[in-house]
Each structure stands twice: as structure tokens, then as C-alpha cells.
Amino acid sequence: RKEVEQDPGPFNVPEGATVAFNCTYSNSASQSFFWYRQDCRKEPKLLMSVYSSGNEDGRFTAQLNRASQYISLLIRDSKLSDSATYLCAVSKQGAQKLVFGQGTRLTINP
Amino acid sequence: EAGVVQSPRYKIIEKKQPVAFWCNPISGHNTLYWYRQNLGQGPELLIRYENEEAVDDSQLPKDRFSAERLKGVDSTLKIQPAELGDSAVYLCASSRGTGGGNTIYFGEGSWLTVV
């Protein structure tokens, strides 16, 4: 079993729709959680960190469920520009090492 | 602020040939990473440096891969000899300091095709 798992998709949704991704992790010692965005043939870029209480940044909401060991990303009112691959990443306490999921590919259709 | 700089961006080589990638991290970032990303997969850590010291190289295939970070700034990753399965994107990244609270920034990657 991989340490971090994501549904690879692809997810194809119409513009304006709400879409949600989940990511599960197996290491209960994981303490830091992130969502990265990766455009085609580009490098991953940090989208947002995920905090225990959940956090929101505009149309994006991230949630953490420690009991079930998963994190989620919700995108509301999706835009064409949201089309990308979304990677979740986790690291252990004090460890500056990110373990990534395989990424979920999202396409927003006009 | 300049980002992580990598070169070359693209490289095509024949199997059994050597190849080297270079990385210049963001100024002031003392932690440097090399990740490998295969098509359709997430990045996987090959090696992590804190200053000049390789603190995690457990996933570096040491029979053919080597890396160095002289003077704790620039780094090179070498593959010798390359195999077909080494075709991937090699991503360099850096962060300021250590600990889970530091954001990791990636370079654009070096795309390797082994034929």
C-alpha cells in the first residue's frame, strides 16, 4: 500500500461546478499536510497547507480528518483555469520530507 | 526573488550513457531536494541535503545515481549509466531551514528521455 493515495481521476466537470478530492495517508505520525497544484509540463506549486481546523482560501477549502487519515480539497465555482493536477503531500513531525500522492487530474469544461 | 533554477530543461540520451543535472536553489535556502516524477505519478524523493550533508538518500539508487552539493549551495545529480526506466522528470526543490513548517519550492524540472 502506498503511503499517500489519491484517486487519479480524471475528473471532468463543467465550469461553475463544485468538485472535491480526497487523499488518504497511511502513516499516523504524519503531521503536516498540503495540497499542490501542477499544470501540464510545469513544476508543482503549493496551493495551500491543510490545518487541523480546516482552512479556506477563496474558492478553495481544505479539511483534515485525523481519525480516518484523510485530507480533502473542495473547489467551489470552478473556473477553466482550475484545470490542473492536484497533488496531496504529507510529512511527519519535524521531518522536512514530503511524500506525495500520485495526483488527481482535473479538467474544467466550458 | 529568483526561483529554483535547473538545467538542462530537456535531455535525450541513449541508454548506457551518462547524464548530469544541475540545480541552483533559492538564495538562503539551506535544504535542497532531488525528486523524480514519472508520468502520471507524484514526485518521489531521491535525496535531501541540509547544507552540504545528505541527510536522506535512502531512495537514491546508489549503483547508478550520485549527487553532490559542494559548498552547500548548487547541487548536481548524475546518472551513470542511464537505463530506459530512468526516463522521468527530475525536480530540484529547496526550502529555508528544516522542520515541517517550511514551504518547499520546486524548479521547473529536467526532462530526461532515455532511448
- Percent of residues of chain B in beta strands? over 45%
How many extended strands of chain A?
Answer: 11
What proportion strand of chain A? over 45%
Largest interface: A-B, 25 and 26 residues
Low-confidence stretches of chain A: none
Considering DSSP H and I runs of 4 or more, what fraction of the residues of chain A is helical?
under 10%
SSE string of chain A, helices as H and strands as E = EEEEEEEEEEE
Number of strands of chain B: 11
Give unreliable regions of chain B as ranges: none
Helical coverage of chain B, percent range: under 10%
Give the N-terminus to C-terminus distance of chain A in angstroms: 37 Å
Structural class, from secondary structure content of chain B? Answer: mainly beta
Describe this structure in words.
The complex is a heterodimer of chains A (110) and B (115). By secondary structure, chain A is mainly beta. In chain A, 0% of the residues lie in helices and 55% in strands. Chain A contains no helices and eleven strands. In chain A, strand 6 (55-57) and strand 7 form a beta hairpin. The N and C termini of chain A lie far apart (37 Å). The model of chain A has no long low-confidence stretch (mean pLDDT 92). In chain B, the strands form two sheets. In chain B, strands 2, 4, 5, 6, 9, 10 and 11 form a seven-stranded mixed sheet that branches. A four-stranded antiparallel sheet of chain B has the order 1-3-8-7, with no helix packed on it. Chain B starts with a strand and ends with a strand. The chains are: A mainly beta (110), B mainly beta (115).
Give me a quick take on this structure.
With 110 residues, chain A is mainly β. Chain A has strands spanning 4-6, 11-14, 19-25, 30-38, 45-50, 55-57, 60-65, 70-75, 84-92, 99-100, 104-109. Chain A has no helices and 11 strands.
Brief descriptors of the model:
heterodimer; A: mainly beta; six-stranded mixed beta sheet; B: 115 residues; mainly beta; seven-stranded mixed beta sheet; four-stranded antiparallel beta sheet
